[in-house]
């Protein structure tokens, strides 16, 4: 169930840029800006508005990620540098803030009313699946990157879906490590999305080479 929830979230963010291909950037900026303001206000004041918070975070992830993918040149090296920098920041912040989160559950909901505005959450029988808003932005940006390269949506979905699948496998394999630093590393999804992006780049190049050879014999 945990993996399924992650794949559905990755699918939504991966398909978002394709659904918004014809939307002008200024409308994406408006959506990202409005959702960001709502996230900040909700987090600061601890507004217990789950699952509305999930909708706001998803809008920010898709709009913000699509914009980031449009701003970056659709080339290998610039986007790789971006993903590497974000991966380092992701690991660093998880290590720096490793440890139990402050408990402040929402009335009757069992969720922290501040942190619900920072993480996309899906209720599961065993608890909640959680995905940070920055992870959603990166997944959507990677999808937009491949859309601009005309790689096709199956390739564009690979970074997010592979990243979530690898993360789930690592979580199952390592369980609950006692060292906070190791636990923090396992919570860092952006490096895994980066790995998925590299796999998608390889798939794109293999497909392009195959199509070129096929065209030569036609």
What does this structure look like?
There is one protein chain. This protein is mainly alpha-helical and 218 residues long. The protein has one domain. Helix content is 70%, strand content 6%. It is built from eight helices and two strands. The chain has helices at 2-19, 25-45, 52-71, 76-96, 133-148, 153-174, 180-186, 190-217; strands at residues 119-124, 127-132. Strands 1-2 form a two-stranded antiparallel ribbon. Strand 1 (119-124) and strand 2 form a beta hairpin. Helix 3 packs across helix 5. Residues 100-109 have low confidence and may be disordered.
Task: Give the arrangement of secondary structure elements.
Blueprint: H1 2-19, H2 25-45, H3 52-71, H4 76-96, E1 119-124, E2 127-132, H5 133-148, H6 153-174, H7 180-186, H8 190-217
Antiparallel strand pairs: 1-2
Helix pairs in contact: 1-3, 1-5, 1-6, 2-3, 3-5, 4-8, 5-6, 6-8
């Amino acid at each position: 169930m945990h993996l399924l929830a992650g794949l559905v979230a990755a699918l939504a963010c991966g398909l978002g840029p394709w659904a918004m291909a014809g939307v002008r950037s200024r409308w994406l900026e408006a959506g990202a800006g409005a959702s960001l303001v709502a996230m900040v206000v909700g987090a600061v004041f601890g507004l217990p508005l789950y699952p509305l918070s999930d909708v706001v975070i998803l809008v920010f992830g898709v709009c913000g990620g699509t914009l980031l993918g449009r701003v970056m040149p659709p080339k290998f090296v610039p986007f790789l540098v971006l993903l590497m920098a974000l991966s380092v920041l992701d690991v660093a912040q998880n290590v720096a803030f490793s440890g139990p989160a402050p408990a402040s559950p929402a009335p009757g909901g069992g969720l922290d009313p501040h942190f619900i505005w920072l993480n996309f959450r899906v209720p599961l029988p065993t608890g909640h699946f959680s995905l940070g808003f920055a992870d959603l932005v990166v997944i959507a940006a990677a999808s937009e990157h491949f859309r601009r390269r005309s790689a096709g949506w199956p390739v564009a979905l690979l970074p997010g879906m592979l990243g979530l699948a690898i993360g789930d496998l690592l979580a199952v394999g390592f369980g609950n490590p006692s060292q906070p630093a190791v636990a923090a590393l396992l919570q860092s999804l952006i490096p895994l999305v980066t790995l998925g992006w590299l796999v998608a780049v390889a798939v794109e190049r293999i497909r392009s080479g195959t199509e070129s050879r096929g065209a030569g014999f036609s």
